[in-house]
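Why HTH LytTR-type domain-containing protein? Reviewers of the renewal asked for a concrete example.
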Amino acid sequence: METISYHNRSFRILAAFGATMFILFYGRTFDLHHALSKPLFWYAFIVSFCVALLIVKIIHEMTVYLDGRFDWRKNFWQRITYQVFLGIFIPALIDVIVFTAYFLVLRKNIVHTGFLSSDLLRVVFLLALLNAYYYIHYRLLTRKHVHEQTSNHSNSDILNIDHNGLHLHLHVKTDVLLIYRDVRVTKVRTVNGNEYTTNHSLAQLNRQYKKQGICQINQSFLVNLYMLKGYINVEKRDSYSPIIKPAYRAAFPESLSHEFVVTRKYSDDFRERLADI
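Here is what the prediction returned.
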């Protein structure tokens, strides 16, 4: 999976500075001239700014790391889980640890400073905003790439699959037996009996791989016509049961046999296209 280059070092420095000023002055009278004359302000500013830079750097590195492993579009729930843990929880924990040490140096108990009840909540809010920025930035940076990839593969024989860490390139005409919708998940069944999930819809796959023999037979099934020997009539009028070639029957799950039917709506297109194979 491609690693994204954000080129946002200046933004990260400004974000750290802005977050520092927000935390230091939120809920207090904004008197910068008075604050600059106080040594305690400078101690707090230097520590807060350094911690902010560290946290922003951690979030940046973790985001780049996750970009290379969990695509936001293809693995959204996995990605958001890791992003919240590595991009919000861990940085917030680091912030608490550093400021606990800071207040100990000042001979103060962090519990009695109000940090945990007020400042920490604002820190978490700012962390969430920064992670949201990276999500939006990712979508914008990859939008053109996704569009080009879709265009380049519109007439391709290759179906790219990202499944549980596996990155596969299936030749539709020779590798794919059928594609079906299982509740809300689209599944691809290969001629070897393996099954993978994809984020593509049946309608999209039907359009994209029509020239490679993919044909819709009902609302839930696409079949590779090159894997069929023919079809037989069933009791219901204008409905048919596809006959899979003997070499591929072992890969067909019997649990799907009662749904593997060409319904009336798709029967004419199915018969015409099968006759041309």
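Residues 115-152 form the longest helix (38 residues). This is the kind of structural detail the renewal will allow us to pursue systematically.
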